[in-house]
Amino acid sequence: MILSAIATGRLRAGDKLPPERELSTIFGISRASLRDALKMLSGMGAVRIRRSDGVFVSGHDDRVALSEKPENAVLVQRGSTAELFELREVLETQAAGWAAMRASDAQIVQMQTLHAKLERKAKSGKLSSTEARALDGELHRAIARSTSNRVLVQVMDTLRDLLTQSRNHTTDVPGRMAMSVDEIGRVITAIRDRDPVRAQQAMFSHLKMGEQANMLSAARLVGNGETED
């Protein structure tokens, strides 16, 4: 809920969160669980914990890349891949709607250019899983940037990095790559048409299909006697 408040702008950079006692009452959790959650948010770079002053929403200059914060590995251990996908569904679905309302014409052209490149390479049969994930990441990042919400961009980047660390195999399922290209294309078309409802629906469907593909891939690995670590 704190992440959602940051992403939607209800909490802005520099805002101080309420005291622990109040937050634990609001969320209906123990103070110990709340502290764990705040540590996770701090590890993601979403908040800063000042022992003497309290907890504050991070400003842009306070955030560092995931690779520079090794404590974020704890998030992969504590939060399952399914939970990470679930959070992406909340944030990126909202982001798609905002993009349809806020994206500039130039930003939409950039999305279309990236998608055309992804589609062209996929049809040529020369698109590796690694390159597909990289191009897909660029597209999702372009959509996030077009919302003009810098906190949202940072949080979404972190979630994508965490999914990579936790072995996201969505593009390894046969036929999934072509489906993914088509799905994200529908998101961009809705953004171009300035239709936030359709953009959200298309993004939610895209992420849900990706989650299901990842589960299928993970099941296949287990069935083949492989591990994911």
From TrEMBL:
Residues 1-60 form the HTH gntR-type domain. It comes from the Bacteria. SMART domains: FCD, HTH_GNTR. GO terms for molecular function: DNA binding; DNA-binding transcription factor activity. Keywords: DNA-binding, Transcription, Transcription regulation. Pfam families: FCD (PF07729), GntR (PF00392). PANTHER family: TRANSCRIPTIONAL REGULATOR, GNTR FAMILY (PTHR43537), UXU OPERON TRANSCRIPTIONAL REGULATOR (PTHR43537:SF5). This is GntR family transcriptional regulator. It comes from Pandoraea anhela.
